[in-house]
Specification:
It is a single chain. With about 130 residues, the chain is an alpha+beta fold. The chain has one domain: 2-Layer Sandwich (Alpha-Beta Plaits), CATH 3.30.70. The protein is about 35% helix and about 20% strand. The chain is built from 3 helices and 6 strands, in the order αβαββαβββ. It starts with 13 loop residues before the first helix and ends with a strand.
């Protein structure tokens, strides 16, 4: 149901896949899911008006919401939780899900890529940011 029989190795980095392989299948991880969005192949002018940019962002969000509906069953089956109400302007959404769920998401046709949420530590190590 979740697999398209040609799991793209490019949806998860080899480093992340290696880290996932060392986790228990039910162990939870925080990830960012980049959903497949439609109509990104249209050429855009070099300089867009504010209205054109806003319309483009809304188009991406709406397309990503449709893809999010498609992966909802995967999130449910693998104990996943959306960490945001809706996809952002890039068509991505943060998710907490089991390690096995990450693989199921990567196998979905509705997903463009899956990246792990990573901590960014400044050189002075006083403030921590998460991406």
């Amino acid at each position: 149901m979740y697999h398209n029989n040609t799991i793209s190795k490019n949806k998860i980095s080899s480093e992340f896949a290696c880290r996932l392989s060392h986790l228990e299948p039910q162990q939870k991880v925080n990830i960012i899911v980049f959903l497949k969005v439609e109509n990104l192949d249209k050429p855009m002018s070099l300089r867009q008006s504010r209205a054109e940019r806003k319309a483009a962002m809304e188009g991406i969000r709406n397309s990503a919401k449709q893809a999010l509906d498609y992966i909802g069953k995967i999130l449910q089956d693998f104990g996943g939780t959306q960490l945001a109400d809706s996809p952002d302007a890039l068509g991505s959404i943060p998710v907490e899900i089991s390690a096995a769920g990450v693989e199921a998401l990567a196998a979905s046709d509705a997903v463009q890529a899956v990246v792990e949420e990573q901590e960014i530590v400044p050189a002075n190590d006083t403030n921590r940011f998460y991406v």
